[in-house]
Amino acid sequence: MKRKLSIALRLVISIVLLVLLFREHNFFTEIAPRLGALLENWPWVLAGLFSAFLGLMACATRWYVILRGYAPQMPWRVLARTELIAAFFNVSSIGVIGGDAYKIMSVTRRLPGQAPQVGVSLMLDHVTGFVAVGLLFFSCFASIWPRWEALGHDARLLLTGFSGFMGFSLVGMTFSWITFKPQVLAWGRRTFPRVLGTPFFGKISHTLITVHDVILALWRRALGSIVVSVVVYGCVFFTFYCALRAVGARAPLLDVMTAMPVVDAMASLPISISGLGVRERTFEALLSSFANVPEPACVSAAFVGWLFTVFWGLIGGWMFLKGGRETKA
Fold first, then answer.
1. How crowded is the C-beta side of 328, counted as CA atoms within 13 Å?
2. Mean pLDDT of 246-268
3. CA-to-CA distance for 138 and 130, rounded, in angstroms?
4. Would you put residue 246 in left (φ > 0), alpha (ψ -120 to 50) or beta?
5. Between residues 216 and 124, which one has the greater pLDDT?
6. Are 257 and 132 contacting, i.e. CB atoms less than 8 angstroms apart?
7. Could you give the CA distance from residue 285 to residue 296 in angstroms, rounded to a whole number?
8. What pLDDT, in 10s, does the model give residues 195-224?
9. Neighbours of 296 (CB within 10 A)
């Protein structure tokens, strides 16, 4: 019941946000002409679709790099297919949880008895992606900094908040890695036996040690995964640059690359379904401030960029339905 209420609430929020956007920017006079420009700017549509596809394949490659550390028999083509189908579940469910759940179930069927390792590898996959987003954001943010005072209040607020979030998160990840070490956990149990020596904490401690051991065994591959992650998000963010050009608007590529980590983070919040409304509003606030892009064009581009990913999600859904239940490799 709670899940149904959550879905209903997010659906209502998505509809309200889109209605407000389309009332502020009249859909028929400001948005529809931008969407109609897709036919005229079809090369950018194809480029956007191709970039979104490359992003998905690079994402499969990122996980493949990590999984090969303890499952060298896992074929890349299997992960590529899994990634496409996961894109369908990401679109049809609430956020990325549906896609991650499918990934774990699909790969675990091929690696029986290794569910914890599969789960940790996917967690490490996301961590390396997060680090890559931070590298991309702070690198591209340097191009925006000289114009800081000229940016609007909303843009400065979003950039400041996201910068703080990324900084604290990276520090927190480093601290977590230190606390996962078996020596640190053992010291904690000796020093605070009444709290950390309980059976409950013992189970948590065992899980943390497992996570630490898997990460330690795969750390070299994790570094390679960060490099692949830069390609992943470079493609994902370039998809929205293509969408902007497809609706007949222009902005410097670095401005789009600076805005997209913030847009992606806001769209991933469990507020609306697939980030609808939130993505468009954030893209509008940043790009209109960064490069004076017309606000209706920003809203249209953000929506079209999402549709590029939805296209491949639908292909993944067709593959899932057509292939039925996968057999073990």
1. 6
2. 93
3. 12
4. alpha
5. 124
6. no
7. 11
8. 666 776 666 666 666 666 666 666 777 788
9. 24
